[in-house]
Design a protein that fits this description.
This protein is α+β, with helices and mostly antiparallel strands. The chain has eleven helices and seven strands. GO terms for molecular function: transmembrane receptor protein tyrosine kinase activity.
Length: 307
């Protein structure tokens, strides 16, 4: 009788009950979340969203110095969205060991709160560095890493550059969280289009705008600059000097195939193909730069010996 009177009213729902048991080891007490965010202080607020607020924090008791985390505090109460919340945690946790996906630290679901806690990524959003701070080799490496992550989660999350963060080693880290109240109509093929937009940002050196996403920039590049061999018109000259020609050709081919309108969506390249091509481009650029460095060292030695 006691167990019946005190049972959670939602526990009779098999999906929620089974998910709750499965995810229990990841639960973080609400008290720790309050401590981590200093009671959700404005100083720790990163941004307010329509359906969730994002906070930075330092979780106590996770290590001697605390763990830097990012906390998404959702505003959801309807049962279908609560189920989606738990399913999302499961999905994130299934990718836990992937080096290019931001790690799940845990979640909190006490007293009506619904929060997901993720690791903090040191260098922040990729878009901050698009204009001039990333070398061509770094851009290739970041895109390759991102493609590995998206190949793992595709088609469960929409590919957007704002989901790509950079760690202390400039490795791409994908934030695998999305707005639980938005019903995405993305397929794996529309994801490939979005991935092509991200590649275009890397090549063009700036974040795409709403107007760009409405196909203007994509059409301009695919129909004019790429197909007519005029890519140099949109690439920063300093970046262009670093490029081995074959790497630009491979990279731009992938981007334009992702962006080009087809009669059938399946004509776009699959993510696995994108991974393989980006890996090839990065390896070519890496060998090219090693060769250039070796030549420079040789010239330096020759000049020194001639003194």
């Amino acid at each position: 009788m006691f167990s019946l009177l005190h049972r959670n009213p939602l526990s009779s729902l098999d999906p929620l009950s089974s998910l709750d048991v499965e995810l229990a080891p990841l639960r973080i007490p609400l008290k720790e979340i309050y401590t981590a965010t200093q009671d959700f202080s404005d100083e720790n607020l990163i941004k307010r969203g329509e359906n969730a607020d994002v906070y930075r924090g330092v979780l106590p008791l996770r290590s001697k110095v605390g763990m830097d985390v990012v906390i998404r505090r959702y505003r959801i109460s309807q049962l279908p969205l609560i189920l989606t919340f738990y399913e999302e945690i499961k999905r994130i946790n299934s990718c836990l060991k992937h080096k290019n996906i931001v790690s799940l630290v845990g979640y909190c679901d006490e007293k009506g709160e619904k929060m997901i806690v993720m690791e903090h990524v040191v260098n922040g959003r990729m878009e901050k560095y698009l204009s001039n701070q990333l070398t061509w080799a770094q851009r290739l490496h970041i895109c390759f890493g991102a493609s590995l992550a998206f190949n793992t989660i595709n088609p469960h999350a929409a590919v957007k550059s704002f989901k790509i963060y950079l760690d202390e080693d400039w490795e791409a880290k994908v934030v695998f969280c999305f707005d639980l109240l938005v019903e995405y109509s993305y397929t794996k093929h529309s994801n490939e289009y979005c991935f092509g937009m991200m590649l275009l940002e890397m090549l063009y050196g700036r974040k795409t705008t709403v107007k760009d996403v409405n196909h203007y920039l994509a059409k301009m590049v695919t129909n004019v600059h790429y197909e007519e061999g005029q890519l140099d018109d949109i690439i920063d000259p300093n970046l262009r000097k670093q490029m081995r020609p074959e790497t630009l050709s491979t990279f731009s081919e992938i981007a334009c195939k992702c962006l080009k309108k087809h009669k059938y969506h399946w004509q776009r390249p699959g993510m696995l193909h994108i991974v393989e091509r980006l890996k090839k481009a990065f390896e070519m650029q890496w060998r090219h730069e090693n060769h250039v460095r070796a030549l420079m060292r040789l010239k330096s030695c020759v000049a020194y010996n001639a003194l």
